[in-house]
Design goal:
By secondary structure, the chain is of the alpha/beta class. It is 63% helix and 9% strand.
C-alpha cells in the first residue's frame, strides 16, 4: 500500500480517512454480520411491534361504522367474514379483545426488540473498539510521532460511541419507520385510495428535502468530529503537562488555548445544529400540511359529499381511520431528521475509524519468523542508514559490533541519533538501508515479540502505569511471584523506599507514576528490567534526570544488571560509561570516533572535549557530595 503524499494531508491518518468510501457498510460487513442473529431478532420484532400499532386505528374505524353508526358491516382486513360474530355486543367485545391483545403484544415485542438491537449494537461497538485498539498497538512509532494522543482517544472512544448509537437507533428506527410508512400507506389506500393520494402527496417533497439536507450536512459533521479530536488533544496535553503549566504560571495561556479550540467545537457544532433545526421543522411542516389537507378534505367529504374531483362515499369510521393513521405517519416521517443526523454523525466517525484501520502496519513479523529461543547477545550494525518519511536522515552508514557480554557506549551531542540506534535494535523503527543483526540474524527476520522479550530497555523517560508498585515491576513478566518482584526491587536499590511507602508494594503510583520522584520511578523501571532477566540491555540515558546520590544508587544497580550481559548504553554523563569496552562518539548521524576511554582521550577529539567539560562539573559535584555525606555522618553521631 502506498503512503499518500504527506504534503497533501496533515497526517497519514487524515490521508487514509479521506480515501474511505461507504464506511458504515464496510464496518457492518466486518463486524455486524457476526451478530446477525441478534439483528435478525431485533428487526423481526420491530416489524411485528410496529405492525401491531396499526391494528388499533383499523379496528376502531371498523367498530365505529359497524357497531355505533351502522353505516357498514363488521369486517376486518385479512379475516374471513365467517369467523366474525354477527351481534353488536359480540362485535364490540371482539374489537376490545383485539385492541387489548395488540397493545399487550406490542409492549412485549418492544421489550424483545430493545434487548436484541442493543445486544447487536453494543456487540458491534465492542468489536470495533477492541479491533481499533489492537490495530493501534501494531502501528510503528512513526505513526505516533505524527499523531496526538487526544485524537486517538477521540477515535477509540467518541467515534466508537457514535457507531453504537447508529447501530442501536438508526437500524431499529429505520425499520420502524419503514413498517409504519408501508403499513399506513397500504391501509390508507385500502380504506380510500383517493383521499390517500392527498395524504401521501407529501412523500416526494420529504424525499427531495432529505436528499438536499444530506448533501449539505455531511462536510459539517466531518468538521465537527475533527474539532472534537483537537479538543481532546489539547485537554490531554494540558493535563499531562500540568506541572509545567503551574511552574511557569501559564494557566492563562493554556486556558486561552482550550478556549480557542472549544470555540472551534462550538462553532462546528452550531453549524450542524442550525441546519438540523432547519431540517426538522421543515419535515414537520410538510407532514403537518399533509395532515391538515387530509382533515379539511375528509371533513368536507363527510359533511357535504365528495369535494372537487373526488367520487364515492367516506364514512365517519373511515375518516377516523384516516386521521389516526395520518397522525401515526406524521411522527415517523418527521423523525427522519434524527435518523439523518445519526447517520451523518456515524458516517464521519466511521471514516475516521476506517482510516485508522487502513494505515499500514510497517513493523510486523516476516512470513516465517525465526524464533530467538536462546539469545547469546551478539549485536551487529551493518552500514545502517535511517531516514524519516519526510526525508530527514538521522543515521548515515553506522557500523559497529557488540560481542556477547560486552558493553558498548554511545555518546555525542543532543540530536546526534544515539536514541535512534537503540530503537532500531528494538524494531520500533526499521532501517532505511543496511541491517541490524542479533546473533547473526537480521532483526527483520526474527519473531518480533521474541526479539523484544530478549532485550531489557531502560530509558530516560520512565513510564509507569496507574497501578501498584508491584504491578509496574511485573509489567512484561506478569507471572512473576512476589518473591521475584521483591528480589528485583532489591537488586535495583528500590526495596528500601518501597517498604517506606504507605502501602508498600501495593501503593498506587498514580497516572504516569506522579506520586513518586524521578529517581524512584527510574529504580522501579530498573527492577522491571532486572525481573525480565534479558540477555541484552539497552540503557538510553538511564541516569540523566536524577540527582547525584540517586545516580550513585542507580549506577550500582546498573552494574549488577549489566554484569555478564551484552549492554548498549547511551549516555550523557560520560562518567557512567568510561569503563565500557568500546565507546562510540556519534555526531550528525555518523560515528566519528571509537575506542576505549583512554584511547579517545589520547585522540583529543570530540570525546576529549566533552570529557573535559564534564570532568570539571563532576569534580564540583563530588566535592558537594562528600561535604553532604560528612554532614550527615556528624549529625548521626550527635
Amino acid at each position: 500500500m502506498t503512503t499518500p503524499d504527506s504534503e497533501a494531508f496533515e497526517t497519514e491518518l487524515d490521508a487514509y480517512r479521506d480515501r474511505v468510501s461507504k464506511p458504515l457498510l464496510r464496518l457492518f460487513r466486518a463486524y455486524g454480520v457476526g451478530e446477525w442473529r441478534w439483528l435478525a431478532l431485533g428487526l423481526t420484532t420491530s416489524v411485528l411491534t410496529y405492525g401491531a400499532l396499526l391494528v388499533t386505528p383499523i379496528v376502531l374505524g371498523t367498530t365505529i361504522d359497524a357497531v355505533f353508526t351502522r353505516e357498514s358491516g363488521y369486517a376486518l382486513p385479512l379475516v374471513p367474514d365467517a369467523w366474525l360474530p354477527t351481534g353488536q355486543t359480540e362485535q364490540f367485545r371482539l374489537s376490545a379483545i383485539i385492541i387489548g391483545v395488540a397493545l399487550l403484544g406490542g409492549a412485549i415485542l418492544q421489550w424483545i426488540r430493545g434487548v436484541a438491537i442493543n445486544f447487536f449494537a453494543h456487540g458491534v461497538m465492542f468489536a470495533i473498539r477492541v479491533t481499533a485498539y489492537e490495530k493501534m498497538q501494531r502501528l510503528d512509532m512513526t505513526f505516533f510521532d505524527n499523531k496526538e494522543t487526544g485524537e486517538i482517544m477521540s477515535i477509540l472512544n467518541n467515534d466508537a460511541g457514535n457507531l453504537e448509537i447508529f447501530f442501536d437507533n438508526v437500524l431499529g428506527d429505520s425499520v420502524r419507520i419503514g413498517v409504519i410508512v408501508v403499513g399506513v400507506m397500504a391501509a390508507l389506500l385500502y380504506t380510500n385510495w383517493q383521499l390517500a393520494l392527498v395524504t401521501l402527496g407529501a412523500v416526494p417533497l420529504l424525499v427531495v428535502f432529505t436528499w438536499w439536507f444530506v448533501r449539505v450536512i455531511e462536510p459539517r459533521y466531518t468538521r465537527h468530529r475533527e474539532t472534537i479530536g483537537d479538543l481532546n488533544t489539547r485537554i490531554e496535553n494540558g493535563l499531562s503537562g500540568i506541572e509545567l503549566v503551574k511552574t511557569t504560571a501559564s494557566e492563562d495561556f493554556e486556558n486561552g488555548r482550550v478556549r480557542s479550540v472549544s470555540r472551534d467545537v462550538f462553532d462546528a457544532n452550531m453549524d450542524v445544529l442550525k441546519l438540523s433545526y432547519f431540517y426538522r421543522p421543515g419535515m414537520e411542516l410538510i407532514t403537518g400540511a399533509a395532515l391538515l389537507a387530509t382533515f379539511i378534505i375528509g371533513g368536507i367529504w363527510v359533511f357535504s359529499g365528495p369535494p372537487l374531483f373526488f367520487t364515492g362515499d367516506l364514512s365517519i369510521g373511515d375518516f377516523v381511520v384516516f386521521m389516526l393513521l395520518t397522525q401515526r405517519l406524521t411522527g415517523p416521517m418527521a423523525q427522519l431528521s434524527s435518523i439523518v443526523d445519526w447517520y451523518e454523525n456515524a458516517r464521519a466517525s466511521g471514516k475516521r475509524i476506517c482510516g485508522l484501520m487502513d494505515v499500514p502496519v510497517r513493523i510486523e513479523n516476516a512470513s516465517n519468523p525465526l524464533a530467538l529461543d536462546d539469545v547469546d547477545g551478539q549485536i551487529e550494525y551493518d552500514d545502517v542508514t535511517f531516514a524519516y518519511e519526510s526525508g530527514e536522515t538521522v543515521l548515515d552508514g553506522v557500523t559497529f559490533d557488540v560481542e556477547a557480554g560486552e558493553t558498548v557506549a554511545l555518546v555525542g551531542p543532543t540530536g546526534a541519533g544515539k536514541s535512534t540506534v537503540a530503537k532500531l535494535l528494538l524494531r520500533l523503527y526499521d532501517v532505511t538501508d543496511g541491517a541490524v543483526r542479533v546473533d547473526g540474524h537480521d532483526v527483520r527476520d526474527v519473531d518480533l515479540a521474541g526479539l523484544r522479550e530478549g532485550i531489557g530497555y531502560v530509558s530516560q523517560d520512565t513510564f509507569l502505569f496507574d497501578g501498584t508498585v508491584a504491578e509496574n515491576i511485573r509489567y512484561g513478566r506478569f507471572d512473576a511471584t512476589d518473591e521475584e518482584a521483591r528480589g528485583a526491587a532489591s537488586a535495583a536499590e528500590a526495596h528500601g523506599f518501597i517498604e517506606n511507602l504507605p502501602d508498600g508494594y501495593e501503593t498506587r503510583v498514580g497516572e504516569r507514576g506522579v506520586k513518586l520522584s524521578g529517581g524512584q520511578r527510574q529504580r522501579i523501571a530498573l527492577a522491571r528490567a532486572i525481573l525480565r532477566d534479558p540477555e541484552i540491555i539497552l540503557l538510553d540515558e538511564a541516569t540523566a534526570s536524577v540527582d547525584t546520590e540517586t545516580e550513585y544508587l542507580i549506577q550500582r544497580s546498573l552494574d549488577r544488571l549489566t554484569a555478564d550481559r551484552t549492554t548498549l548504553a547511551i549516555a550523557h554523563r560520560l562518567s557512567t560509561i568510561k569503563d565500557a569496552d568500546t565507546i562510540l562518539v556519534v555526531e550528525g548521524g555518523e560515528i566519528v570516533e571509537r575506542g576505549s576511554h583512554d584511547e579517545l582521550l589520547a585522540e583529543d577529539g570530540l570525546y576529549a572535549k566533552l570529557w573535559g567539560v564534564q570532568a570539571g562539573e563532576l569534580d564540583e559535584l563530588a566535592d558537594e557530595f562528600v561535604e553532604r555525606a560528612a554532614g550527615s555522618a556528624a549529625e548521626s553521631r550527635r
